[in-house]
Amino acid sequence: MSYNSSSIGSGSRTARRTFEFGRTHVVRPKGKHQATIVWLHGLGDKGSSWSQLLETLPLPNIKWICPTAPTRPVAIFGGYPCTAWFDMGDLSEEGPDDLEGLDASAAHVANLLSTEPADIKLGIGGFSMGAATALYSATCRILGQYGNGNSYSINLSAVVGLSGWLPCSRTLKSRMDRSHDAARHAASLPILLCHGLGDDVVAYKHGERSAQVLSSVGFRNLTFRTYNGLGHYTVPEETDAVCNWLTAMLGLEGSRS
């Protein structure tokens, strides 16, 4: 599926970027369908990698949608192209945010969720850069708009981020201060963040800082879990925590094991 950035209206006369998203993999619920979650892979990965893991989780009431990011030049790799939800140079708060790329990926995710039945709870989760995109989508939800000002209309019930970080963190508070409903929406949106102390790709301090920023602007229903010795990958202890949290937050039937 292609995505032209002008379709969400930047109002700019600069060159338009067209994003060609890769294949989307779907894991159907094995039981009664109660929730749909879009799960986003990390930098250089693809949707099929996570669909295989998600299919093994004891969450029979969840439909998983695992899209694949566009292949694009990425600054952190010196412009070498790979699958990425947005462009990135480094993780410092002073670094520029690729707002156009973030908006395009958040809109792609919202489009995938927009056709789900009205009685199905909706969520977004991801790993590393996928977690960053999920958290960016959470801020779009509570602000009611994308970074470019266009309306965001998906009602999220849960957001999960593993080994990730919060993009656009330095401007979040000022944007929320201009919105009447943002604080109320933030307080009611459950977020689970998990990060390993041994992460040598996205350092633990970035995950911790992201949780602090989200809490400070009003995300009251936020859980931040730390894992000793965990690097930039996931382990059964972490996926068990995700399963238990989703079961509780989404009111799912079936096993919590």
TrEMBL record:
InterPro entries attached to this UniProt entry: AB_hydrolase_fold, PLipase/COase/thioEstase
UniProt-recorded Gene Ontology molecular function terms: hydrolase activity
PANTHER family: ALPHA/BETA-HYDROLASES SUPERFAMILY PROTEIN
Organism encoding this protein: Acer negundo (Box elder)
Pfam families the UniProt entry points to: Abhydrolase_2
Protein name, as recorded: Phospholipase/carboxylesterase/thioesterase domain-containing protein
Phospholipase/carboxylesterase/thioesterase domain location: 25-248
Gene3D superfamilies reported in the protein's UniProt record: alpha/beta hydrolase
